[in-house]
Specification:
It is built from 11 helices and 6 strands. The protein starts with a helix and ends in a 14-residue tail after the last helix. A hairpin with a 4-residue loop joins strand 3 and strand 4. Strands 1, 2, 3, 4, 5 and 6 form a 6-stranded mixed sheet that branches. The protein has 302 residues and is an alpha/beta fold. The protein has a domain of 150 residues: Nucleotidyltransferase, domain 5.
Length: 302
């Protein structure tokens, strides 16, 4: 963990030195934070890696001489929470910087899926939540349950490297969300060879949808829906389809995605980003240190 934290801090610090505009705005005259933005990003990744969903418990653990050798100064919980919400943009840039520094970034096969991000259960919590209007009631067929919250739409490589993601209401159409992602960030496709393959489940269907993907030089691979003829590549689908389920389980089982504790939109967004950066950083560090399994978090979670 110390090795990963040091490498991540250096990358974030170098990024900020080269592009200081990525740091949150601060007045020219004022108190300089004792914990730098690069240290803050690193501290948040370590929190996700070590499984601390409570910021207060995490900072108590960090203060109890466990991380003093890495962080001479640690903020209190309110300050940590407030500053973390302001560095969401920086976390995205650090994540892209690390992702593009891996061999997996150039992978010509992507997998896509959405997974629930529950934000509340009791009717009273739903009524009072600041997430109301964005969060919705939805149904997850793979888990056979209803939930109130959001959906994480994740596009990643077969090696588990997150390429891009979107957070939407629970009822958002997965196909429209994916097309909007490509429209928002067209370089994801234009900067690649014209032979990208996309693996999705049966929810990614439709002649118009596949036609729009074809216009982007993306070939869709999925199982046939009821009443459809067998599709090309169906024999490859099942073993490859398990990859996205495994990646979702990494987010939920090891990085506690559904125990994010976010109560306002910015809070939920930065906590999802925090976990996405943790997975990206682990893959990046594992590749550069020659580890056999790039997506393994075992070396960092204790």
């Amino acid at each position: 963990m110390d090795s990963l934290a040091t490498a991540l801090y250096v990358e974030a610090d170098d990024l900020l030195k080269g592009s200081p505009q990525l740091a949150p705005w601060r007045p020219v005259v004022g108190i300089t934070p004792q914990l730098s933005d690069a240290e803050l990003v690193t501290l948040s990744v370590m929190q996700a890696m070590l499984g601390y969903t409570s910021e207060a418990r995490w900072l108590r653990h960090a203060r109890a001489a466990h991380l003093r050798h890495l962080f001479p100064y640690l903020p209190k919980q309110p300050g940590y929470n407030k500053r973390l919400r302001k560095v969401a943009g920086l976390i995205q840039h650090v994540m892209r910087e690390l992702a593009t520094d891996t061999a997996l970034w150039a992978d010509d096969v992507w997998v896509v899926d959405s997974t629930p991000v529950e934000c509340g259960r009791s009717p009273e919590a739903v009524k009072r939540s600041d997430l109301a209007g964005w969060a919705q009631y939805g149904y997850c067929a793979s888990q056979t349950r209803y939930f109130w919250g959001l959906r994480l739409h994740l596009l990643c490589t077969l090696g588990g490297l997150p390429i891009v993601f979107a957070l939407t209401g629970a009822k958002a159409d997965e196909r429209e969300t994916l097309l909007e992602v490509f429209a928002t960030e067209p370089t994801l496709v234009t900067d690649r060879p014209p032979s990208q393959t996309l693996i999705g489940d049966k929810n990614y269907f439709g002649r118009e949808f596949e036609s729009r993907l074809a216009d982007l030089n993306i070939e869709l691979l999925r199982l046939a829906r009821k009443g459809e003829a067998e599709r090309a590549g169906s024999q490859l689908f099942k073993p490859l389809r398990q990859v996205i389920e495994s990646i979702n389980e990494t987010f939920k089982g090891q990085l506690d995605l559904e125990r994010h504790r976010g109560r306002i939109p910015n809070g939920v967004i930065v906590r999802v980003l925090q976990r996405a950066l943790a997975l990206t950083a682990a893959i990046w560090h594992n590749e550069h240190t020659g580890q056999p399994v790039r997506r393994s978090l075992t070396a960092y979670d204790h």
